[in-house]
Specification:
Strand order of the largest sheet: 6-5-4-3-7
Number of helices: 11
Shape: extended
Largest sheet: 5 strands, antiparallel
Structural class: alpha+beta
Radius of gyration: 27 Å
Order of helices and strands: HHHEEHHHHEEEEEHEHEEHEH
Number of strands: 11
Distance between the termini: 68 Å
Length: 323
């Protein structure tokens, strides 16, 4: 444990207890000698302004109970593992959507990098050894993204022009943004649509242009958002209306055992090593596409309409290779 981690851990020890902490116990908890523990206590008190005082009756150090609730370590005073995790996370944010927020988080990323360099933790080495691969990502306008994010934070309505992907029709809408969703390498906006009088999920790349209104956004309870938009399978799920029952082969089961298709899924290992998976869904389009990618390793057992829809798509695929 280096001195930075030692001071951070010392703060956690003192902030989380009411009794005095002796030097002997400090050394044992911080994995150092009592003399080193004393230096950490002095650094915490003298350089970081922590409300540490010596309790003679308790025979150790403790935080002043009047000042302790208001004291926190300075911002970005993090241990090594926390800094590593932040650096990797900021690397992800910097690459999400081709640098959509890279410029905005650059100052924080640089500060974390300097902290890692100061501690000789190899920030440059880490940056070169994290690779993030995106698949089927669609371009999102940076300025539109910032306007949407600003309206979310300020709780303002948005006026947008939305081009539906299936119909390819343009509609002008006023929407109350509720939350941004990052799903399969693309951004979506869950919002109350004042035109349709209900909750909708909008693909961010289909919003063009975007204007922030002065009108306050309509608030939708979190529970309602979960039920209306997150209850069934996929990004356009809605409330569950059916349950898909799928049977996966024993070869595919080794991968499937670690996957979550839906929070409410039910899975069971079969005697032959296969897996039976039950998934709630509403609209079948996205579910069908995901089933098809497993080819012969999956069979739809229920409901009959979904089974026939998948079989029809497979027959169409085979017909394309009939020559």
């Amino acid at each position: 444990m280096n001195k930075f981690d030692r001071i951070a851990e010392l703060h956690r020890l003192l902030a989380g207890r009411k009794s005095a902490l002796s030097l002997a116990e400090s050394g044992a908890r911080l994995d150092c000698s009592p003399a080193t523990a004393r230096r950490a206590i002095e650094a915490l008190r003298d350089f970081l302004g922590a409300p540490v005082h010596y309790d003679r009756r308790g025979g150790g150090y403790r935080y002043d109970p009047q000042r302790a609730p208001r004291y926190e370590l300075p911002p970005l005073w993090l241990n090594d593992s926390e800094l590593y995790a932040l650096m990797v996370s900021h690397g992800l944010l910097g690459q999400v959507r081709r640098g959509l927020v890279a410029a905005d988080i650059a100052p924080v990323r640089e500060r974390i990098a300097r902290l890692l360099d100061d501690r000789r933790l190899g920030a440059g080495e880490l940056a070169q050894r994290v690779r993030i691969v995106q698949s089927a990502a669609r371009p999102t306008d940076t300025e539109n993204f910032r306007r949407v994010a600003g309206a979310l934070g300020q709780r303002r309505r948005l006026r947008v022009v939305y081009r539906g992907r299936a119909s390819d029709e343009l509609t002008e809408r006023t929407i109350s943004p509720q939350r941004l969703v990052y799903y399969r390498d693309n951004w979506y906006l869950d919002a109350w649509c004042h035109l349709r009088k209900g909750l909708r999920s909008f693909a961010m790349d289909r919003l063009q242009p975007v204007y922030v209104s002065e009108d306050p956004a309509r608030e939708v309870p979190e529970q309602t958002l979960r039920e209306e938009l997150g209850g069934a399978y996929g990004i356009m799920g809605g409330r569950p209306r059916n349950t898909a029952v799928l049977r996966f082969s024993s070869e595919r089961a080794r991968w499937l055992a670690d996957e979550q298709w839906h929070p409410a899924q039910v899975s069971r290992v079969l005697p032959d090593g296969g897996v039976r998976l039950e998934v709630p869904y509403s609209r079948p389009e996205e579910l069908i596409l995901d089933i098809l990618r497993f080819g012969p390793d999956v069979e739809v057992l229920e409901p009959p309409a979904l089974r026939e829809a998948v079989a029809a798509r497979l027959r169409e695929a085979v017909a394309g290779y009939s020559d």
